[in-house]
Amino acid sequence: MPVMSYIQAVTQALREEMKRDEKVFILGEDVGKRGGVFRATDGLYDEFGEDRVIDTPLAESAIAGVGIGAAMYGMRPVAEIQFADFIMPAVNQIISEAARIRYRSNNDWNCPITIRAPYGGGVHGALYHSQSVEAVFANQPGLKIVMPSTPYDVKGLLKAAIRDEDPVLFFEHKRAYRLLKGEVPEDDYVLPIGKADVKREGSDITVITYGLGVHFALQAAEKLEEEGISAHILDLRTVYPLDKEAIIEAAQKTGKVLLVTEDNKEGSIMSEVSAIISEHCLFDLDAPIKRLAGPDVPAMPYAPTMEKYFMINPEKVEKAMRDLAEF
Amino acid sequence: MAKKRHEALGLSDEQVLDMFRTMLLARKIDERMWLLNRAGKIPFVISCQGQEAAQVGAAYALDREKDYVAPYYRDMGVVLAFGMTAKDLMLSGFAKKEDPNSGGRQMPGHFGQKKNRILTGSSPVTTQVPHAVGVALAAKMEKKDFVTFVTLGEGSSNQGDFHEGLNFAGVHKLPVITMVENNKYAISVPIKKQLACEKVSDRAIGYGMPGYTVDGNDPLAVYEVVKEARERAVKGEGPTLIETVSYRLTPHSSDDDDRTYREREEVEEAKKKDSIITFAQYLKDNGVLTEEKEKELHKEIDKLVNEATDYAENAPYADPEDALKHVYAE
């Protein structure tokens, strides 16, 4: 089985879907000739031509809005927002339009658009090249938000997003792009959107996380295993709508739950996960629900001292896991 | 004898009479909705009154069998011309289950009907412009010969989506016609506080497309310019920006009181140019319409509006739990 990086899995999923269905096309800034500033669309311009890998004007609301129009017509647009931080001018199009098109038309119209954007910190990206923006969109029924953690999941979930009949935000951790490598089957497979995935079986503590946090938690779990602490790790994969059943099951399994996100803590995805566990698992818990997250400051600073302070890392995750195990 | 104006445009007597009929139908449905609102039967109405000529003139210049439209909330004339019925609109006014626009989910004026290629719209203004551009992009990619037609008010031409959408259309030379229905007010704010340039169409040059300003009270003038824009679009010559100038004859909506910001004399003056009167006069002057025919037409449309009102008023609402349906594909 071929081993590829997280970003190669993105490119591979796009290539396979464009080959499979000629209604699939890409639009965004620098996605064409340049192949994307991160090179996520590398080679696709040469393979599929400038009409299907469209370099757009620098205007995010148009990237989303034109994609939405094409999707309503019946195309399968994959819009790239160069950095998740720059999605804000497109929020009106995504929330007021894409999320509501099916509902407001009483199921007459729908909007099968995929919007990809690199998110996340730890890359010296400062305030506007590091942010997690999922919480902005995570109380908008009509949207789905996918945040994969491995190359295998990237390919299967991105293909599922493109085939989905509703709008999907697909956030890729930019530090994972080249950091994470893994086996990715050559065959055509899709993974279910809306389903979390157990990445590690364990019996002492449960860690629920997503994106790069999964990688950090797995690293920490290996170390803790040597100390006799067995960690169960649930990867949310889809952060909206949440897989409630899987969350409840994972929490009940050990009774000690750590929730990890690199987003600011208050009002994050983990706030909702915590509420779900509180509602359903009161008598299963052996410790208070713990959250490890970024501090409640606007975004990640540039200087390495402050960036490191803001960002979660394997050491912080390991400490939080050990503390919980010892509770 | 010189050709009549509509004949010179290739329009038959029947066609111009049909245009007038659609304008009158829009006006009468709109007037009925105000009565229903003031009688406490429907919560809201937002009007097309004063803009019927622009809407119907434009719609008749399009291919109503294959073009796509992204109308804004005043476009009753456009959606009627594209196949929506008086009954459909009344069902929307009463927010009934059978309303094809939204099943009673949206306020009236939020049009949408897939079978007639009317894109679903929302309340935040101008979001429909990039959508129309996206459908036009699909037309180009799929090598189809339809165009998209999108409308908005002059106030909305200040929104970012206007700039972003038109620039995208201009860069990619897409078959989309943008028509700004300038009715001189964005709720209460007059044009001089909205635009730094003289005309909305002055903005076209920035998007690399031709811009035209026409009399929005003259359906034939609007027909002519939209027809030309459509021909250019299907030939691959790109988008066009059209501004129609007319006047909003009603307050912004049933919740507005326009006496707080404009003089009655101004409104009365505008009513003299009301296209429902002036176009009827044109048709009479040219032997297309007679007093008798006009009376018949009024009678026929009144009957249609009465029937639509009765039907919609008696139609059932959606079940309360229907509020849970259609968030995602089922």
TrEMBL record, chain A:
<dbReference type="Pfam" id="PF02779">
    <property type="entry name" value="Transket_pyr"/>
</dbReference>
<dbReference type="GO" id="GO:0016491">
    <property type="term" value="F:oxidoreductase activity"/>
</dbReference>
<dbReference type="InterPro" id="IPR005475">
    <property type="entry name" value="Transketolase-like_Pyr-bd"/>
</dbReference>
<dbReference type="Pfam" id="PF02780">
    <property type="entry name" value="Transketolase_C"/>
</dbReference>
<feature type="domain" description="Transketolase-like pyrimidine-binding">
    <location>
        <begin position="4"/>
        <end position="179"/>
    </location>
</feature>
<dbReference type="InterPro" id="IPR033248">
    <property type="entry name" value="Transketolase_C"/>
</dbReference>
<keyword id="KW-0786">Thiamine pyrophosphate</keyword>
<dbReference type="InterPro" id="IPR009014">
    <property type="entry name" value="Transketo_C/PFOR_II"/>
</dbReference>
<dbReference type="InterPro" id="IPR029061">
    <property type="entry name" value="THDP-binding"/>
</dbReference>
<keyword id="KW-0560">Oxidoreductase</keyword>
<protein>
    <submittedName>
        <fullName>Branched-chain alpha-keto acid dehydrogenase E1 component</fullName>
    </submittedName>
</protein>
TrEMBL record, chain B:
<dbReference type="GO" id="GO:0003863">
    <property type="term" value="F:branched-chain 2-oxo acid dehydrogenase activity"/>
</dbReference>
<protein>
    <recommendedName>
        <fullName>2-oxoisovalerate dehydrogenase subunit alpha</fullName>
        <ecNumber>1.2.4.4</ecNumber>
    </recommendedName>
</protein>
<keyword id="KW-0560">Oxidoreductase</keyword>
<feature type="domain" description="Dehydrogenase E1 component">
    <location>
        <begin position="21"/>
        <end position="320"/>
    </location>
</feature>
<keyword id="KW-0786">Thiamine pyrophosphate</keyword>
<dbReference type="Pfam" id="PF00676">
    <property type="entry name" value="E1_dh"/>
</dbReference>
<feature type="region of interest" description="Disordered">
    <location>
        <begin position="97"/>
        <end position="123"/>
    </location>
</feature>
<comment type="function">
    <text>The branched-chain alpha-keto dehydrogenase complex catalyzes the overall conversion of alpha-keto acids to acyl-CoA and CO(2). It contains multiple copies of three enzymatic components: branched-chain alpha-keto acid decarboxylase (E1), lipoamide acyltransferase (E2) and lipoamide dehydrogenase (E3).</text>
</comment>
<dbReference type="GO" id="GO:0009083">
    <property type="term" value="P:branched-chain amino acid catabolic process"/>
</dbReference>
<dbReference type="InterPro" id="IPR001017">
    <property type="entry name" value="DH_E1"/>
</dbReference>
<dbReference type="InterPro" id="IPR029061">
    <property type="entry name" value="THDP-binding"/>
</dbReference>
<comment type="similarity">
    <text>Belongs to the BCKDHA family.</text>
</comment>
<dbReference type="InterPro" id="IPR050771">
    <property type="entry name" value="Alpha-ketoacid_DH_E1_comp"/>
</dbReference>
